[in-house]
Amino acid sequence: MAGLTQKIELLITATNRTGSAFSAVGQGLDDMSANVRAVAQPFADVTTAVAKLDAVLAALAGAGLAYAFSESSKLQSSFTELKKVAGDNEAVLNTAKTAAKDLSNAYGESAADVLASTANYVQAGFSVEEAMGLAKTGMDLVIAGGVDASQSSEILIASLKGFKAPASEAERLIDILNETSNNYATDIEQLGRGMAGVSPIARTMGFSMEETAGIITPVIEVFRSGDEAAVALKTGLLKLIDDAKPVQEALASIGVAQRDANGNLRSGKDILYDVARAFQTLNPDQKLFVTQQLVGIDQSARMVEVFDGLSASTQITATAMQSAGSAAKEVAERMKDPEVAVNRLREGFNNLASAIGDEFQAGGASAINGFTGIINALQGEVEGGAFAPILDALDDFLNGLGEKFSTIAENLPEALEAVDYSGFLDSLGEIRDTIGGIFVDIDFEDPESLGNAIQGIIDTLTSLVDFSAEIADVFVSIGQKIGDLVGWFNALDGKTVATAGQITAFGAAVSAVAVPIGVVANAIAGLGGLLNTLSGSAVSTLVKSLVGSGSLSAAFTTVAPLAAAAFGGTAIGTLINEFVPGVKDGMQALAGMIDRYTGLLGVEKDAQKVREQSIEVEAKIKKITVDRTRAVEDSAQKTKAYFQEMVDSEDEAANGLEYLNEELRKTGALVEEEKKVTVDTKDAKKKFQELSYFVSEGEKKGWHTIKTPQIRDRPADCPGTGTGRDCPKLPQISGRSECCADTS
Question: Within the chain, what is the greatest distance between any pair of CA atoms?
Answer without folding.
Answer: 167
